[in-house]
Amino acid sequence: MVPEEGGINPPRQEPENVRAQLDRILASPEFLAPERGRRFLQYIVEEALEGHGDQLKAFTIAQAVFGRDASFDAQNDPVVRIEAGRIRRALERYYLVCGSSDPIEITIPKGGYAPNFSSGEGGSNAGAAAAPNRQAKPGQPGHELRRPGHERQPGHERPMRYRDLLLPIGIPALFGTMAVLALIRPLESYLSPSKPPPAPAASTSKSTTRIVVEPFAALGGTARGSDFAKGLTDQLIAKLMKVDSIVVLAPGRFDMKTIGSLLTLQGSTLVEGTVLHLQVRLINSADGAVVWANQYDRDLSDQTILDVEDEIAAKITMEISNSRKLSGAGPAP
Description:
This protein is an alpha/beta fold. Among the domains are: 15-125, no CATH class; 205-326, Rossmann fold. 41% of the residues lie in helices and 15% in strands. The strands form two sheets. Strands 3, 4, 5, 6, 7 and 8 form a six-stranded mixed beta sheet that branches. It has a two-stranded antiparallel sheet with strand order 1-2. Helix 1 (15-27) packs antiparallel against helix 2 (35-49), helix 2 (35-49) crosses helix 4 and helix 7 packs across helix 9.
């Protein structure tokens, strides 16, 4: 059975603040999600704010967001589960890249589809900063109770402790030890044979390939082809990031003069009826040479686009990571 409903955490934030945070996420270029994923996030947030979080199940979401009819079966069509996983990853990336100081954090706990709204770093810092300004009242932690007659009288000095003697004695002893070591160290260099310097460690960058995944072009001007191009780009980024020998860079967020040689993954999609045509190529940015290329054709009549995206992205990742031509791109200087 596919888990659908988990424990529901009621929103602890004001609805207007949550909606403002949702608008901030959707407007950010760092929130990498296709249009259907954004509709999915908007729907579950609004339902939770309206108090309908317990009704957020795969069946209702599939009908309201993805246009499925009453014959929808979550076991045979995992569109809601896959999209929920994609939005979870997009939210995690957003808060790691640029949303760490946002006042509200929106998450989708695993095991369900009801979102959780918690105070972010910005909200928690305000409460922490105000705490030291509050004066402790009698009976609360931090308030020291003094009995009559126990106040410190002027002229009554506290007795000298062991640590009071350690400070004036220990500091001169420490400097004396350092002076002795400074004299012994040069003698060791004369008495002991010189050792050759250790060999420099092999640079790990030699085995690392830097790849920029550019947004795939959607040919034909159809909404289905555009959604597939965006979804496949997201899947490729997620799967390539899991390969240890590959570093994925965001398009336009680096300087070629400092980053060195890298590869660019480009592609185009065309949906004609129920047939998908996909062209993918890997280009060396240093000289424009095509390092790897392939074509994929799929029949969409008997499977969902999400399944096709996942299957093709996994195959492209495997072929790129196993290609021997990747060494031609060269490591970063």
